[in-house]
Amino acid sequence: MTVGVGVVGLASFYGPAYAERAAGQTDVTVAGVVPGDATSEQLASLGRPTPDDFATAHDCPVYDDMDALLSDDGVDAVVVASRTTRRAADAVRALRANQPVLTAKPPAATADGARSIAAAAAEAGVPAVTTSPARFDDAVKELARRVHAGTIGNVLRVHAAIRHDRVPNVGIETNAEHGPREAGSAYAMAFYTADALLWLVDAAPQRVYAEYANRNTPYSEHPDLGTATVRFEDDTLGSMTMTYAADCREPLGNWEVEVVGTDGTIRTRHEGYEGIHWHGDGAGRRTELFGRTESPILDRQFDAFVDAVRDGAKTGAVEPSPGRTTSVMELCEAWDRAAANGAVETVFG
To answer: Is the pTM value of this prediction over 0.90?
Structure first.
């Protein structure tokens, strides 16, 4: 079965990026595109293709709106990468047309938007997946497998860190994630760390605290640094840091996770491509390295989504599920409120 993918939004990295992945497969096609409201000049300033260039590269039609795209019989699934303030509405529109959806991250500008996607996906019974690349990283996946298998005993503390190049000034006014009034790094970046913490701790968040700052991107209204904590209902402690303030991602990497348990500690590293597992089982104490291949994580994310579409899978077939994504956005929102208010935020009870 050939899967025809419609793309909504060219001002985000993810619209063109997923189209490139579709074009690289023999059984996936780009069926059409809705460019969004950015002009060709604005798209060029962001380093994104213009609608004409995109249509030429992928031999597909350009549509003015979602209704036109969704009426195309060649569309079997939709990548939604429109600006965050309308991303949830576009995803819901596609889901109500019974089209599986892969959104850029974050899936919306608010937790309410994520809830609307989850409700529409449940009603349609089709996959609704949010991009979460760390889930497709070899070392992070292996770390999670070992944690869930109990190899470090009971989880006591989890730390997740994300480091990324700072958002560029050029074109920022139409940047789909980081433009004025868009979700910004408190959601687009903290989504990684919140997803990691909720993936690795089997308890609900209870209270949080956060400090955000903008120190090196004065042209942006969003934070470029953040540090936050979360106490879970089982007394597990979580923490996160996000750094968006310097152009030094490579070769230092994107994300790091550390989990401390009653019987050991396990972590991935920004530096290099490996995971480290310290076993703490008495006389058998040892250090074990496990590998990371510099893997095409977005290829894997896209393939997982397309496979679910091809298999006729139901909602939740690919993680993070819409329900988990809602919880991630709720945690991001709680951190954002805590940072704005300068006070501990009670999430539950």
So the answer is: yes
